[in-house]
Specification:
Layout: E1 3-7, H1 12-23, E2 27-32, E3 45-48, H2 54-61, E4 67-70, H3 78-81, H4 87-107, E5 112-118, H5 148-167, E6 171-176, E7 179-180, H6 193-203, E8 209-213, E9 219-220, E10 223-224, H7 225-237, E11 244-246, E12 252-253, H8 254-265, E13 270-274, H9 288-294, H10 302-318
Parallel strand pairs: 1-2, 1-4, 2-3, 4-5, 5-6, 6-11, 7-10, 8-13
Antiparallel strand pairs: 9-12
Helix pairs in contact: 1-7, 2-4, 4-5, 6-8, 6-10, 8-10
Nicotinamide-adenine-dinucleotide (NAD) is lined by residues 8, 10-14, 32-34, 50-52, 71-75, 93, 97, 116, 118, 176, 178-179, 192.
């Protein structure tokens, strides 16, 4: 039986990943500061531990692991990573986790290590035109991420690549683009646009109003969780190290995303645009490399995933 360690197993993507690995027949250990919020973990063993402490990393990595998935990070949506208020914590906490894991994964000779980087590493100067953002993997340099969250991801990408070069660590790196779906944070300040908009629409009375940060003309793409997990699986099975984008190419404005949520809800609402943290003006996944190297790319529609997410958030509100 293959053994996998999922760091960040109490988080959104990590808890779904544990479930998928269990269904594939792995023995799974999860580790996180917290248990998953919205479901029971399916992990065979779950450690509540702070991965900033190398002693904790040592004992969770103890015993051979065929695969380690490093998803633990101090992160949240625009309200958390683009205000500047959490930059020191984001950089310190996530970098410390990655320094520990890279070093010890090499020492413990893990079979393969997956690292979740982010579209936030791409240079701000290529994401000024909302209709024509450039996020091909080779456009990452000269580096100019628009957030310290993005700088930490870029540093850690480079560190894992250096460990691969110097210590033979067998790595895979993906750059996720806005992953969403049920059991993601949907309130409290760390939620991202799809969940925040679904919540606002679900809470509003028909004919009422919702608030959106900025003019709503900033563009993004959003990838449903199941396709993110499929991309991780395919990357891990392949010989390609990456970094590779795992994202959707269905780019929409935030206003269009809100219209879609209203259509799903069957509500007509007006949008009030207010000031708020925004991030870059335009961003979209570029899937040429993933198609070329993995012979696959996400294909499901945004509306399909948003419908499932809207229904789930509606259920949470009724609880
Ligand atoms: P998440 O916040 O739900 O999960 C991250 C988990 O890491 C949390 O459960 C958190 O408690 C845990 N963690 C934080 N500090 C820790 C520590 N010191 N010790 C142990 N655990 C700690 O986020 P997610 O959406 O599941 O994202 C998973 C990974 O994917 C992250 O690395 C994130 O940066 C990356 N990513 C996510 C997205 C997205 O849209 N969700 C996009 C790009 C990259």
């Amino acid at each position: 039986m293959k053994r996998a360690l999922v760091c960040g197993a109490g988080g959104f993507i990590g808890s779904h990943l544990v479930e998928k690995l269990k269904l594939e027949g792995y023995w799974v250990r999860g580790v996180d500061l917290k248990m998953p919020e919205f479901s029971l973990t399916m992990a065979d063993s779950f450690a509540i531990a702070d991965l900033r402490d190398p002693e904790n990393c040592k004992w969770v990595l103890d015993g051979y692991f065929d695969e380690v998935y490093q998803l633990a990070a101090d992160m949240g949506g625009a309200g958390y990573i683009f205000t500047g208020e959490h930059d020191a914590d984001v950089m310190h906490n996530s970098a410390t986790i990655n320094l520990n894991i890279a070093n010890l994964a090499a020492k413990y000779k893990v079979g393969k290590l997956f690292y979740s980087s982010s579209a936030c590493i791409y240079p701000a100067y290529n994401q000024v035109d909302p209709n024509n953002p450039k996020c091909s993997e080779d456009s990452a340099y000269p580096a100019a991420p628009d957030s310290d969250y993005g700088w930490e991801k870029l540093f850690s990408e480079r560190m894992y690549l250096a460990y691969a070069r110097n210590y033979g660590l067998n790595i895979r790196i993906a750059r996720f683009h806005n992953i969403f779906g049920p059991e993601g944070t949907w309130c409290g300040g760390k939620e991202k646009a799809p969940a925040a908009i679904c919540r606002k629409v679900a809470e509003a009375q028909d004919g009422g109003e919702i608030e959106i940060w900025g003019d709503g003309e900033q563009t993004r793409s959003f990838l449903y969780i199941d396709e993110c997990l499929e991309g991780i699986h395919r990357l891990m099975q392949s010989n390609f190290i990456g970094p590779v984008n795992i994202g959707s190419e269905e780019m929409v404005t935030i206003n269009q995303l809100a219209d879609m949520a209203m259509r799903i809800a069957g509500k007509k609402l007006s949008i009030r645009h207010i000031e708020g943290p925004l991030g870059v003006r335009g961003r979209n996944s570029d899937n040429n490399l993933i198609k070329e190297r993995l012979n696959w790319a996400p294909s499901k529609s945004l509306e399909e995933g948003l419908r499932k997410t809207y229904d789930w958030i509606g259920e949470q509100l009724r609880k």
